[in-house]
Each structure stands twice: as structure tokens, then as C-alpha cells.
Description:
Elements: E1 6-16, E2 21-32, E3 37-41, H1 48-55, E4 63-68, E5 71-72, H2 78-88, E6 89-92, H3 104-113, H4 121-134, H5 150-162, E7 168-172, H6 180-195, E8 199-203, H7 207-210, E9 215-220, E10 223-225
Parallel strand pairs: 3-8, 3-9, 6-7, 7-8
Antiparallel strand pairs: 1-2, 1-4, 4-5, 9-10
Helix pairs in contact: 3-4, 3-5, 4-5, 5-6
This protein binds adenosine-5'-triphosphate and magnesium ion (MG).
Magnesium ion (MG) is lined by residues 48-49, 172.
Amino acid sequence: MTTAQISLRNVSKVFETDTMETHALRDISLDIMPGDYVAITGPSGCGKSTLLSILGLLDSISAGEYQLDGQNMAAISLDQTALIRNHKLGFIFQSFNLIDEISVLDNVMLPLRYAAKPVSNEQMYQQAKSCLAKVGLSHRESHKPAQLSGGQQQRVAIARALVADPKVLLVDEPTGNLDSQSGNQVMELLSELNLQGTTICLVTHDSRYADMAKRKLQMLDGTLLHAPSGENA
Ligand SMILES: Nc1ncnc2c1ncn2[C@@H]1O[C@H](COP(=O)(O)OP(=O)(O)OP(=O)(O)O)[C@@H](O)[C@H]1O
Ligand SMILES: [Mg+2]
């Protein structure tokens, strides 16, 4: 039996302020296998982005356990957390978060500048070029992000997410700022990446796009409705 790449057990997340507590995630258990493609849907505020932040080690859990590749994420240092985030995980958000002052190619190279193992300039350049080719934007490498269409900018963001060769892509409403044609292109690209072996966890409001995943999970008020676990789904 394949072991889960991502395994959550009874995970809860509570946001606390002076005056109130928000239970964003309640008792979530979920297994995601290598090569899986999971779509998460649910109403606004039900906890989808919080779940992705937890999976992406951008936020900590309040209770429960998170194992990534069999390693308990509560037991590692902040430095290790940053390393794992940079090495194993790629992020794609609704807003492209590109840096406007530098070229498309430099944007894509950026994560490699923070890699644990030093990467030579030549290697960074080659890896970034290869990722831009994957998203069909080799001919735009010297442009600045603002000189590209929204769909092209999102594809640059995808190339940037891929440049450090992540095993898991965490994707939050990638088509939210795109027209339907660009949205379709981005979704087709995600499907191709999944076919090549990348695990994908996608949050989307669009049921057509959720249908492109191998598994669909629904959230409601911080809970996961009938969360099947990995291979037994
Ligand atoms: N940093 C935070 N501090 C306090 N509460 C938060 C914080 N982040 C999220 N929340 C709350 O947690 C709940 C879940 O938010 P989350 O952003 O995960 O929802 P979502 O399902 O992604 O919604 P949407 O579809 O609108 O993006 C909401 O009630 C939200 O107000
Ligand atoms: Mg959200």
C-alpha cells in the first residue's frame, strides 16, 4: 500500500483575538496520496484557504496532527519548516503575486535564490527557462509582468511555483481573476502537471473545474464532508 503524502488527523484551527474565537477548521482528517488531484469546494468562509495554509506550512494547527511524507510537522524547527516549504511545496493563488519591477524570467528564478542548496546562476537560468517553456511563455521571458495578460501572469506564477520542482502544488482559486478561456488554459496546465506526477490540492468555486480533479471534497463550516481517505476512496 502506498503511504499518504499528506495525512491530517483530527486537525482543528482556531483563530483567537482578544474578543473572539473563530473555529476555522474542526476535526479534519484527510489522506492525500502521491499523484492525487483533490478539489476542495464549499461556501465562502468555510475554511478552504485555512486548510491550504495549514497544508502549506504557512500556518500552524491548534490541535491534531499533520504528517507530510511521514514526518510529523509539529516536531520540526522553524528552519526545517521553511526548507520543507521551499523544497516540497508549490503555491498558486488567485492573485499572481508577481514582482512588477523585474522580468518574467527573474520572477520565475526567485524561489531558487532561497534554495537550501546553492544553485548556480546558469542552473537557475536553465530551470526557469524550462518552466517558462512548460507554461508556453518562452517568448515572454524578458517582459515585465504588467506587460502580460492576466492568464499569462497566472502561467508565470505557475512556472514560479514549479521551478524548485515541488512534489505538491497547493492551488487556491487560480482562475478567480481570469476570463474563462485563460481559466481553462490554466486548468489544463494543472491537469498536465498532475499527469506528470505532481500532487495537486485545488480550492475552487467552479464545479466544472472541480470535476477535472480525481477526487472532490466538500467543506462546510470548518468540517470536511465525507472525507474519503486516499486509496480507499
Ligand atoms: N487570520 C485570521 N484571523 C482570524 N480569522 C480568520 C483568519 N483567517 C481566516 N479566518 C476566519 O476563518 C474562517 C475561514 O476562512 P477561510 O479564509 O479559510 O475561508 P474560505 O473557505 O477560504 O473562504 P473564501 O471562499 O471566501 O475564500 C472565516 O470565518 C475567516 O473569517
Ligand atoms: Mg479562501
